[in-house]
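Q&A log
Question type: sequence-to-structure
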Amino acid sequence: MRKHLLLVGGVALVTVVAGIAVAASASAGTTTYEAEAGTNALTGGAHVADCKRCSGGHRVTGVGLLGQLTFTGLVAERAGPTKLQLAYAGTEDRTALLSVNGGVPTAFVFPATRGEGRIGVLRVTLTLRSGDNALAIGNPAGAAPDIDKLVVTTDGTPPTLPPTATVPVDSGTAAPTNPPASGGAPTSPPASAGAPTSAGPPGNGPAGTPELEAQVVALVNTARAKAGCKRVVVDGKLAAAARGHSTDMAARNYYDHSTPEGVDFGTRIVNAGYSWASAAENIAKGPPTAQEVMKTWLGSKAHRAAIVNCGYRNIGVGVAADSAGVLLWTQDFAKPN
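Response status: OK
Response body:
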């Protein structure tokens, strides 16, 4: 089924294909993409659900953890920063990662709406390329909000990103040698160190999160080999803990081994399902590449000690960008019980 409706006066042009509406406003220069459109990709448990107050009567739920929604065919008239509006619903504050064309995901907090049927709108600016784009929405660390629709502004002068002042490269390490008797949080207080450096926020380049994480792991094992240590192996539970922490720091704008609620890295690892005998964590904020973040860590005695500790057997790495495009990095090392 295909319908065309043209209203004179610059109101709207509506096209309906197989019951999914995509409206292009001639006056506002916006295009609306329904989350439930058949052209989108729903994976890992994300699925369409009824929603009386949603555009088109449906929303996509089950986004987060393994679930992901990918909007495809987002058209931008020109490359550069573009205004986006995401209509969503959620009974509590939730975090989602937005990744454009496979690039490094940006973390955003979606404030709670009044109920599952109440719709809120989050306005963001992301860099699109000219022509077709894909926007993936997910959260490996927890539930993301339900998504109703996406509105893309396509006319006028593209918005500019906030001024990018010099970004200090910062890093921290926390390395207890033994788990607590209860198996919960480590008792050793984290130590931190940093090496200020200038670095600009990255753009949406071809390197995505899996690629950056793999690069860090490779560089870690190169350093360990030089130190006479065995290779560390990526563990999915450690990776989930690291990704979750980077995502949380980026979304909630903090930088620490402990969350604002006081949950430290040892507890986060346990909560991810990893039972550890010894563990350590390095974090960093600012470096735009795996090579630069590893250079920063290896240049610090405390961070290097975690990387070349021959007792560790597993590693997990997580990368996320904050709303200004600044990358936050987490690497967790551990020896299992």
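Response note: The longest helix spans residues 209-226.
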